[in-house]
């Protein structure tokens, strides 16, 4: 019966892909309408929280690029959020407050870290890969905890507001919000092109059947590593936004719980769809906020929700993918 | 300096023994069932809270320990029956999500039941105090007892894995799962036994460490990741690998923090040395892991990558 | 035209010697069949030749170049392709996409991130040609997982052809294919003769004796006979070890 189900985005089904682009476009329009709405309600809190939603949407989408299209379950992606946030803090302590430079610095550090840790992690599979990425993420976490010049465990407050080419970003008018939305749209377009390119086809091919890919002449490692690096770099952009949104950085941005939450966002929205994880990020954060408003013990319900969601979805959330060979966790 | 070294080495061994207790169950669960369980650190925490409760009720560490064990068996069986059993055939991603959910739930539930302030467990009288080691060097009796107890459990596990029928099945299962089912063994029961055994060992580690650490909700988290490093270094499914990996990780972690800055002073000026040392120390075990994996992707004793 | 030379190849799994001092000379343009009973180590040998399995000792030489230590992707790029006994395709890709990927592997860089691959005419045209050669062009836009068993076998062949091989390793291409389908498949392989060097593992003895220029017999990892089909058919050792009953069944 599951034979009739089709794989999400293995590169075909143009109608399905066009549908996803449309869904993403709808989301973007809704996002764009948010600030005027907040202004009408005279509640700038919504813009602030909306920026956070958009930043996590970027991160979830970036994770989907490797998790959904490359079957690489990275449990250390919060590290890249961290590199982005600390790029903001460290540059700011040297008097640099320009968003574009912050993004560049975050990307540079992330690329290097992803290159080294990815090269080691990708020599392994399955459970190993998950645990090793988790461990490397934790390594980054501890590094920033011991970075006493930037507050260590306590974090570091940003004193000066960031700007983009001279324009102040952190005013009440939602400039940062719109910049983030523009980034999200641009990065979505980028990821969308990547997954439908030659490179993307190789990446999805490796997800479906790595041995077959070798047998036609592709060495999977270099493609997986490249995707891993791209994903890390994009995630760091989300980190830059988060630091600017909160005006504060701390190692808490890169705890392994955060990595887990990113995976939850991707799965909630739909693995291997790009647009899905954007919605997934909004859904997961809304759920957190909503449960948080209901009970101080909301985490109990959030955890329970996760467990039940996995146990009672018919074949598991990723069952569909496994059926089609997408999530070759088991070999 | 020598004294400090010996003290830290003993501390390292003590941590290593505890890590082994936790990692042993985890590596078997990974190796035999191919299930990733993020909630294993939770069991360690639960063990500590259980002994804290039972010791407080009975007024005795020993009664606490004794009562903790059947409670740990119950916890293991319940988690296996309610959650883990349904995850064996699922993808790793499903397992990650569900056990991550368990972690979040358990942390919050522990906060609700026991509150947020740390608990302490009284040290048994007979094991308090210190013994002279050499010269002026003293070492707490309790820590020595932890080492001895841990080694005894390790020896017991070793005997069980190598000389009993269940152990034979475990070894067969860790290298080749289909062999075990071909032998006509009730896989579900074997899995339940393995998971519960692992759960009890993790709880035991938490209970043993409770008198020397404060018992709080965060305690399972840092240990979980260290345990992952141990399992990865040792090779998934290998008890021997878990034992050596645990000692290696613990000793490197303990000695690195103390002696890293001292060694760095040879090449850097003192303030830079202490700063760099402090930053590098918590990363040492991960660097160790990276180096070992670079040379041996399946870990030291891993049978499959 | 490229030949394949194998010398003293060995492979053991634990105490089990699966490939035992195998030497093989496949002349350029020849179709060389390897036959043998189940468990003789035929698929293991193909995996060693294709680079999927590392050999314990011995050498593999492709057109005068030692490729013993080369991983599979490198061998494919030198023109050594294989098909799999158990169909191994990308289930979520269409037949055309499966084949186009094989074309892409040899045509230009795959580190292109922006241009949409689905509309690359050069890839699709070459892939369609390979599909036509394998007799599957009418099913080009069907997802691989929806193809029938016989179509899967043809897709395997089309993918191997699309890598533009000089030497083609075919691991039981006819497994599970019967009747007219099998005849058509044999005709197809015959058309490649003289254009490609082929190593064929096959249980269907009719097909083997229709197609092969030379036949080697593998029993318990050892080549016990090698020569023209008629000579091998009449070799008493071969008849004793294997051919008698198995051929009787097939015929």
UniProtKB/TrEMBL annotation, chain A:
Presence of the UniProt keyword Oxidoreductase in the record: no
Pfam family, one: BPD_transp_2
GO molecular function, one term: branched-chain amino acid transmembrane transporter activity
UniProt keywords, alphabetically: Cell membrane, Membrane, Transmembrane, Transmembrane helix
Principal location listed in the UniProt entry: membrane
Annotated InterPro entries: ABC_transp_permease (IPR001851), LivM-like (IPR043428)
Transmembrane segments: 21-39, 45-66, 78-97, 103-120, 127-150, 175-195, 216-242, 262-286, 298-317
Protein name stated in the entry: Branched-chain amino acid ABC transporter permease
Species assigned in the record: Thalassococcus profundi
UniProtKB/TrEMBL annotation, chain B:
Compartment(s): Cell membrane
Record-level Gene Ontology MF annotations: transmembrane transporter activity
Membrane-protein topology: Multi-pass membrane protein
Predominant location: membrane
One GO term of the biological process aspect: amino acid transport
GO cellular component: plasma membrane
Keyword annotations: Amino-acid transport, Cell membrane, Membrane, Transmembrane, Transmembrane helix, Transport
Entry-linked Pfam families: BPD_transp_2
Segments traversing the membrane: 12-31, 38-57, 63-84, 96-114, 141-161, 190-213, 219-236, 243-264, 276-295
Organism superkingdom: Bacteria
Family: Belongs to the binding-protein-dependent transport system permease family. LivHM subfamily.
Annotated protein name in UniProt: Branched-chain amino acid ABC transporter permease
Species in which this protein is naturally found: Thalassococcus profundi
Automatic annotation (TrEMBL), chain C:
Gene Ontology CC: plasma membrane
Molecular function terms, GO-annotated: ATP binding; ATP hydrolysis activity
Gene3D superfamilies: P-loop containing nucleotide triphosphate hydrolases
SMART domains in UniProt: AAA (SM00382)
Record-annotated ABC transporter domain positions: 4-245
CDD domains associated with the record: ABC_Mj1267_LivG_branched (cd03219)
InterPro entries for the chain: AAA+_ATPase, ABC_AA/LPS_Transport, ABC_transporter-like_ATP-bd, BCA_ABC_TP_C, P-loop_NTPase
Source domain of life: Bacteria
UniProt keyword list: ATP-binding, Nucleotide-binding, Transport
Protein name: ABC transporter ATP-binding protein
Organism: Thalassococcus profundi
């Amino acid at each position: 019966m599951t034979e009739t189900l089709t794989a999400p985005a293995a590169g075909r089904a143009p109608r399905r892909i066009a549908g996803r682009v449309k869904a993403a476009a709808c989301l973007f329009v809704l996002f764009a309408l948010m600030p005027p709405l907040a202004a009408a309600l005279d509640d700038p809190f919504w813009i602030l929280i909306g920026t956070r939603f958009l930043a996590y949407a970027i991160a979830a989408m970036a994770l989907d690029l490797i998790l959904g299209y490359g079957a690489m379950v990275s449990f250390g992606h919060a590290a890249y959020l961290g590199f982005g946030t600390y790029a903001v803090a460290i540059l700011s302590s040297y008097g640099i407050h320009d968003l574009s430079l912050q993004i560049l610095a975050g990307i540079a550090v992330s690329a290097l870290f992803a290159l080294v840790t990815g090269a080691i992690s990708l020599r392994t599979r399955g459970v190993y890969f998950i645990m090793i990425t988790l461990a490397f993420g934790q390594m980054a976490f501890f590094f920033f905890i011991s970075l006493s010049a930037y507050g260590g465990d306590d974090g570091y407050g940003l004193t000066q507001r960031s700007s983009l080419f001279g324009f102040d970003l952190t005013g009440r008018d939602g400039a940062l919000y719109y910049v983030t939305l523009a980034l999200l749209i641009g990065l979505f377009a980028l990821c969308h092109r990547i997954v439908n390119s030659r490179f993307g086809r190789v990446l999805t091919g490796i997800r479906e059947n790595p041995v077959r890919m070798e047998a036609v002449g592709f060495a999977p490692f270099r493609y997986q590593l490249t995707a891993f690096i791209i994903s890390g770099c994009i995630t760091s952009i989300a980190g830059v936004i988060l630091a600017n949104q909160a005006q504060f950085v701390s190692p808490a941005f890169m705890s392994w719980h955060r990595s887990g939450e990113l995976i939850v966002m991707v799965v909630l929205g739909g693995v291997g769809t790009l647009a899905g994880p954007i919605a997934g990020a909004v859904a997961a954060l809304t759920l957190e906020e909503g449960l948080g408003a209901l009970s101080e013990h909301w985490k109990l319900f959030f955890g329970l929700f996760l467990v039940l969601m996995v146990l009672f979805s018919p074949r598991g959330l990723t069952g569909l993918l496994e059926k089609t060979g997408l999530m070759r966790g088991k070999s | 300096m020598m004294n400090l070294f010996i003290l830290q080495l003993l501390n390292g061994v003590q941590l290593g023994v505890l890590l082994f207790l936790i990692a042993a169950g985890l590596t078997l669960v990974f190796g035999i069932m191919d299930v990733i369980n993020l909630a294993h650190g939770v069991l360690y925490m639960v063990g500590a809270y259980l002994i804290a409760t039972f010791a407080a009720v009975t007024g005795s560490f020993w009664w606490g320990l004794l009562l903790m064990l059947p409670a740990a068996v119950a916890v293991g069986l319940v988690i296996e029956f309610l959650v883990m059993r349904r995850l064996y055939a699922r993808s790793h991603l499903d397992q990650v999500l569900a056990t991550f959910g368990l972690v979040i739930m358990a942390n919050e539930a522990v906060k609700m039941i026991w509150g947020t302030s740390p608990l302490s467990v009284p040290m048994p009288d007979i094991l308090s105090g210190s013994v002279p080691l050499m010269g002026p060097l003293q070492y707490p009796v309790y820590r020595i007892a932890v080492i001895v107890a841990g080694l005894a459990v390790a020896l017991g596990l070793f005997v069980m894995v190598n000389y009993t029928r269940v152990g034979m099945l475990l070894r067969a299962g860790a290298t080749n799962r289909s062999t075990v089912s071909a032998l006509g063994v009730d896989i579900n029961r074997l899995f339940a036994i393995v998971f519960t055994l692992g759960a009890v060992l993790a709880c035991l580690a938490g209970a043993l460490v409770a008198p020397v650490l404060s018992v709080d909700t965060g305690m399972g988290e840092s240990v979980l990741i260290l345990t992952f490093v141990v399992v990865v270094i040792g090779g998934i499914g290998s008890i021997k690998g878990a034992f050596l990996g645990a000692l290696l990780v613990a000793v490197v972690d303990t000695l690195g923090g103390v002696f890293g800055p001292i060694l760095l002073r040879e090449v850097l000026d003192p303030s830079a040395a202490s700063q760099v040392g402090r930053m590098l120390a918590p990363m040492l075990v991960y660097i160790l892991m990276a180096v070992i994996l670079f040379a041996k992707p399946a870990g030291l004793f891993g049978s499959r990558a | 035209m490229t030949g394949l030379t194998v010398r003293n190849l060995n492979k053991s799994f634990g105490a089990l010697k699966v490939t035992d001092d195998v030497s093989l000379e496949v002349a350029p343009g020849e179709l060389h069949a390897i036959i043998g009973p189940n468990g003789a180590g035929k698929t293991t040998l193909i995996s060693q030749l294709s680079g999927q399995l590392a050999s314990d000792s011995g050498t593999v030489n492709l057109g005068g170049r030692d490729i013993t230590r080369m991983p599979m992707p490198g061998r494919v790029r030198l023109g050594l392709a294989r098909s799999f006994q158990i169909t191994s395709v990308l289930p979520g890709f269409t037949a055309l996409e499966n084949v186009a990927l094989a074309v892409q592997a040899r045509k230009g860089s795959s580190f292109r991130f922006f241009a949409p691959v689905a509309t690359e005419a050069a890839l699709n045209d070459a892939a369609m040609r390979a599909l036509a050669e394998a007799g599957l062009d009418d099913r080009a836009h069907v997802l691989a997982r929806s193809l029938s068993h016989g179509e899967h076998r043809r897709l395997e062949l089309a993918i191997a052809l699309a890598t533009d091989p000089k030497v083609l390793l075919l691991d039981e291409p006819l497994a599970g294919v019967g009747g007219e389908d099998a005849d058509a498949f044999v005709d197809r392989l015959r058309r490649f003769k003289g254009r490609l060097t082929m190593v064929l593992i096959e249980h269907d003895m009719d097909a083997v004796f229709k197609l092969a220029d030379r036949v080697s017999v593998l029993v318990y990892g050892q080549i016990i006979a090698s020569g023209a089909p008629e000579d091998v058919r009449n070799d008493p050792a071969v008849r004793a070890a294997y051919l008698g009953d198995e051929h009787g069944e097939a015929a």
